[in-house]
Specification:
Bound molecules: adenosine-5'-triphosphate
Protein name: Metal ABC transporter ATP-binding protein
Shape: globular
Number of helices: 7
Domain ABC transporter: 20-254
Region (Disordered): 254-284
Radius of gyration: 20 Å
Order of helices and strands: EEEHEEEHHHEHEEEHH
Strand content: 15-25%
Family: Belongs to the ABC transporter superfamily.
Distance between the termini: 72 Å
GO molecular function: ATP binding
Length: 284
Amino acid sequence: MLNATAPESTDPSDAPVAPLVLRGGSVVIEGRPIVRAVDFTVRTGEFVALMGANGSGKSTLVRALTGLRPLASGTLELFGTEVSKFSDWHRVGFVPQRPGAGSGVPANVWEVVSAGRLTHRKPFRPLSRTDRDLIDRAIEVVGLTDKARAAVSSLSGGQQQRVLIARALASQPDLLFLDEPTAGVDLPNQQVLADTLKVLQGRGVTIVLVAHELGPLEPLVDRAVVLRDGRVIHDGAPLSHEAVHTAHLDTGHAHHVDETPAPDHLPHVTSPFEAAATRDEEKN
Ligand SMILES: Nc1ncnc2c1ncn2[C@@H]1O[C@H](COP(=O)(O)OP(=O)(O)OP(=O)(O)O)[C@@H](O)[C@H]1O
């Protein structure tokens, strides 16, 4: 007699593709190794906090993971595709650290958030009804509907941060990076951020967030990865602010990395954002 129950698949190709796999990733800036041989995998739907002291390399790592900084060595795969061949950038959202969504341009909230739909539109086509609905909804999720036509420059720092988050939401990413979204943001705004990220987490979005302290975000975090001097010193349960600073390589959760210094001459990995990143640096 035939068994009607289908046998469970053992085919490894059935496993969901990890949104992010970095192997031996190093970043060198002006000859100085800033990120050193980091292995970092993020699974679908995970919420990972990237922690560590000032200057430990968190922002640099995030910029490498978003294709904004070339890797000096190592490999990066996004949704199973090597980064130089990856083209589904609309699946990746990034909320940068720097405040000031308006950045001197007299744009209103709705205009800035609408930029989140740019990667989805065909060139020179006006926004569709769907685009407009997604923009309105993103503004609603971050609680700024009543400010939709306000100049971004007229908003508080925390509200401006929410505008940047709404812009990322409007692009409906599957993988969202946020670089210190709570820095300099008051507690009510941090709570709005936590509520917003909870909505995204519920939708299955994978989230990688840089933070010094988790605050209201703590209950959402599945895993903390702590960097020190460009290396991973902890990869496991979320840590308190104090524990981040006292974490040692022998915590038990620690992920040991190769101590070999990055070589001087390294292969160059290009990305579609590299030109933009260079321009960005020149401005700094
Ligand atoms: N464009 C750059 N040019 C020169 N050095 C840089 C550049 N970007 C980063 N660095 C250096 O790399 C190191 C790591 O910086 P990074 O901003 O990645 O650290 P971080 O952990 O995010 O710090 P913070 O918490 O202060 O934001 C620092 O010593 C910084 O000075």
